[in-house]
Amino acid sequence: MVNYRNLGRSGLKVTEITYGNWLTHGSQVENDAATACVRAALDAGITTFDTADVYANTKAESVLGEALKGERRASIELATKVFWPTGPKGANDSGLSRKHIMESIHGSLERLQTDYVDLYQAHRYDHSTPLEETMQAFADIVRQGKAHYIGVSEWTAEQIRAGHALASELGFQLVSSQPQYSMLWRVIEAEVVPTSAELGLSQIVWSPVAQGVLTGKYLPGQPAPAGSRGTDEKGGAQMISRFLQQEETLRRVQELRPIADELGLTMAQLAVAWVLQNPNVASAIIGASRPEQVAENVKASGVEIPAELLARIDAVLADSVVTDPRETEKSSPRL
């Protein structure tokens, strides 16, 4: 079964493995298959689920809400996000204005078939709205009982510090940051992680398997396997293209296989277990198109990778690793 960790300095516990439905529910995977994956996650001991209103243009939230119907609500930790447009892309259909946040939380709760979410997250930083307005809206949502905790996603260390200060003044706390993080993408390590640890936030990381690259199925000099994310034209191929264009990176990933074998893990399990070695990471988000993928990935929970093997991983990947903290700032568009 899956272990639990506290989210930041809060009392909220989340499973080390979070089930997320970013690129699958409502788009890549039929609803029956999506529901089967959610059931597999529950059967494996996962109780933390992550989605966002923008995923499949609201359909992902609807699919997840339907799949979780009948489950004891208090036994589930449910997280969603706000920022990106889900409507006709009008002037107020995106960002973190009070108007957009308030309208978005109502839509998310309706689609998820719940009265509240456990974690409501700012999906990006909004450069066009005063941070005071954004944090006041979040404070009101917490006081209204529509969200228990507030988090952010892809915010820089400086933005997290400013948001944390305002939250404290308003009587609530930021508890989490949701960045991309993997063996190949370590841009949070220099600034976001130490700042979060200081302020009492945990990381809930997405793409711990680097969109599938760290499974080892993408081979240098060969086309992406049929049916893989690398061939998906609904968004998956675009997301993974950065890594697939780097032959040297794909070659180095293949050299991780002996390390995975030594630990008795698959390549994917090694990748998920690796991010969980970071003490500031509370949970790693996994997605799945088949129930058996869920069952395999949860085996990464509780794995301890010896220091010498962590050093070997660093040596193998070497300069294929992206570490520049400025990459986080690039992910927040100026609307």
From TrEMBL:
Presence of the UniProt keyword Protein biosynthesis in the record: no
Keyword NADP listed: yes
Family matches, as CDD domains: Aldo_ket_red_shaker-like
Keywords: NADP, Oxidoreductase
Pfam families per the UniProt record, alphabetical: Aldo_ket_red
Gene3D superfamilies: NADP-dependent oxidoreductase domain
Organism domain of life: Bacteria
Transmembrane segments annotated in the record for this chain: none
Family per similarity comment: Belongs to the shaker potassium channel beta subunit family.
Protein's name according to its UniProt entry: Aldo/keto reductase family protein
